[in-house]
Amino acid sequence: MTVTAVASGTHEEIYRVEEPSVGLLGFIAVHSTRLGPAAGGLRMRPYASEEDALTDVLRLSEGMTYKNAAAGLALGGGKAVIIGDPATSKTPELLRAFGRAIEGLDGRYITAEDMGMSPADLAILAEETRFAAGLPDGEFASGDPSPVTARGIFNAIRTARAHKHGSRDLGGVTIAVQGLGHVGWYLCQFLKEAGARLIVTDIDETRVEQAIAAFGARAVPLAGIYGADADIFAPCAIGGILNARTIPQLKADIVAGGANNQLATTADAAALHARGILYAPDFVANGGGIINVATEILRIKDREGFVAEKLKALDETMAAILTQAEAADASPAEMAIATVQAKMARSSKAA
Fold it and tell me: How far apart are CA 226 and CA 110, in angstroms?
């Protein structure tokens, strides 16, 4: 296996990982260890090119720095990606090889579940590395983080609704959910229980049919989700979907979802703000998953108590960001970054 350092002016460490004998090609990015070891999930996708994969891991790892800081965790930000289709290219041999690459960083990066990965996959990785979390069993095993991620997003949706319209009640509110993976599915369950009406889309047509049956949802084509007649848009799939093409289509006046890096560029935050669309910053809204995983990384005995406390604090952080952004007539995205950077600066001084 070849692990090659990649030069960067923005990240502490970046590595290209390749093992042709098992079809492995991927990247590990450590953005910051200022608050603690870099933690963030491992994603497997059929990227079109190495450049696309590298761009994704750099953005995701930076987002993890902000996410972990916003959640008040003693963890830095990192991420890893593997190029390939998880449905056809993921093998135990490939996972073990990547586990060895992670082990080689000696704890500076701790991995967990992300798109294309499951707790069972993490268990295979853990055969080769001490630095894998989100495992299905063990003394501090945290399992699938998706339900906790979805709970945090649900909280963010209600908080954004209260900020924009004065009520956290979602009864009769129409919410367009993009993506019905683990997180999107659990989010739909929470929203349905709260009385919301759902509009859904996903690349998996079977999953869409299941959502229609389970939640009484209305389905729209993939590209139709942006212009759907909804009160709230909840992106829960890939990033970069809020851009110059999609923002003008939005009818919703709130965007709050679970996808990472929803904004294609910083200019898109300003575009949402200019249209009067309230954006709940993604790295605050979707912090529940890493909170759940952190109980395993930090070996927290009272997992339920820790998660409940951190989710409550995260929701309070979201409310404060939205309030401060309104007072400053600024985008919540801009205010969220300023908030976590101030947290990190305070932690550095304290250390």
Answer: 35
The Cα 343–Cα 147 span in angstroms is: 27
Q: Could you tell me which residues are beta bridge partners of residue 32?
A: 77
Torsion of CA 97, 110, 284, 140, to 10 degrees: 110
So which residues are the catalytic ones?
A: 79
Each residue of 310-323: pLDDT tens digit? 999 999 999 999 99
Cα–Cα distances (Å) from 271 to 159, 234, 284, in that order, read 21, 17, 20
pTM for the whole thing? 0.91
Provide the b/e sequence for 21-36 (b: ≥16 CB within 10 Å). ebbbbbbbbbbbbbbb
Distance (Å, rounded) from C-alpha 178 to C-alpha 165?
23
In one-letter notation, the amino acid at residue 213 is: A
SS (H, E, C) 270-289: HHHHHCCCEECCHHHHCCHH
State how far the Cα of 4 lies from the Cα of 24, in Å rounded to an integer: 14
